[in-house]
Specification:
Number of helices: 10
Order of helices and strands: HHEHHHEHHHHH
Oligomer: single chain
Length: 231
C-alpha cells in the first residue's frame, strides 16, 4: 500500500471516529439532567460544598464539557478498534495477538484507573478539601469542579498504565533487568507521598489509596520481568 493510501485510510478512520464522537456527545448533551447527578457523586460524602455558576453561560459550558467527556468514554472502544485496524497490517503475524492483548489491557487499566479515582480517590480528596478551611463558605463553580474532577480522572487513568509501560520497557530493553526491583524503595516512598497528598490526613484513607498503587507496582514488576525474558 502506498503512502497516500495510508493517509487516506487514516483520514477515513478518523472521520468515522469523530462522527461517532459527535453523535455520542449530542446524545450526552441532551441527557445532561440524568448525567449530572452521576458527575456529582464524588461530592455525596460532604454537605459543606455548594456548586454555583459564576457567569451567565457557565451552565452551557459545563453541559458541553460533561457531554464531551461522556462521549470520549463511550466511543473509546470505537477509537481503539480503528487504532488496531490501522496498525495491524504493520505488525508481524506472530505478534498480532500480543499487540491486540496490549491494546485491551491498556484500555481496561485506563477505565479501571478512572473508576478507582471516581469512586475512591476523588471523594476522599473532596472530603478533605471541603472541610480544610472553616474561614469561608465553600462555594465552588461548576466549571472548576468538573475540570478538577476530570483532570484527576485522567491522572489516575494514566497512572494505571504502569503495567503496560513496564512491559513495553522490558520488551525493548531500554532499562536494566533489575531496574524496578533495585528502585523499589523510591517507588514506595513516592507512592506514600502521592497518597498522602491526595487523601485526608488519616491512616485509613492513605491505606486505601496506597494499597492499589503498590499492587500496581507489583504487577508492573512481574510484567517487566516477563517481557524482558520474552525478548
Amino acid at each position: 500500500m502506498e503512502l497516500s493510501e495510508h493517509f487516506q485510510e487514516l483520514r477515513s478512520r478518523l472521520l468515522i471516529s469523530l462522527a461517532c464522537f459527535a453523535v455520542a456527545a449530542s446524545g450526552a448533551f441532551y441527557l445532561f439532567p440524568y448525567l449530572w447527578p452521576i458527575v456529582k457523586y464524588p461530592l455525596m460524602g460532604t454537605e459543606l460544598v455548594t456548586l454555583i455558576n459564576l457567569s451567565p453561560a457557565e451552565g452551557i459550558s459545563v453541559n458541553l464539557l460533561v457531554a464531551c467527556m461522556t462521549a470520549a468514554l463511550a466511543t473509546s472502544p470505537v477509537f481503539l478498534y480503528h487504532v488496531y485496524a490501522f496498525a495491524a497490517p504493520a505488525v508481524p503475524r506472530e505478534r498480532k495477538s500480543t499487540f491486540l492483548f496490549s491494546i485491551f489491557s491498556a484500555s481496561f487499566l485506563f477505565l479501571a484507573g478512572a473508576a478507582f479515582a471516581f469512586f475512591f480517590a476523588i471523594p476522599f480528596l473532596f472530603a478533605f478539601l471541603s472541610g480544610y478551611s472553616n474561614a469561608a463558605v465553600q462555594m465552588w463553580s461548576q466549571t472548576s469542579y468538573v475540570s478538577f474532577l476530570f483532570r484527576f480522572e485522567v491522572l489516575f487513568a494514566v497512572l494505571f498504565q504502569m503495567p503496560v509501560a513496564a512491559a513495553f520497557l522490558g520488551r525493548t530493553g531500554l532499562l536494566a533487568k533489575d531496574f524496578l526491583q533495585r528502585h523499589f524503595r523510591v517507588i514506595i516512598f513516592l507512592t506514600a507521598l502521592f497518597s498522602a497528598v491526595v487523601t485526608p490526613p488519616d491512616l485509613l484513607s492513605l491505606f486505601w489509596i496506597a494499597l492499589p498503587m503498590l499492587l500496581l507496582y507489583g504487577i508492573s514488576l512481574i510484567t517487566y520481568r516477563l517481557a524482558w525474558r520474552a525478548r
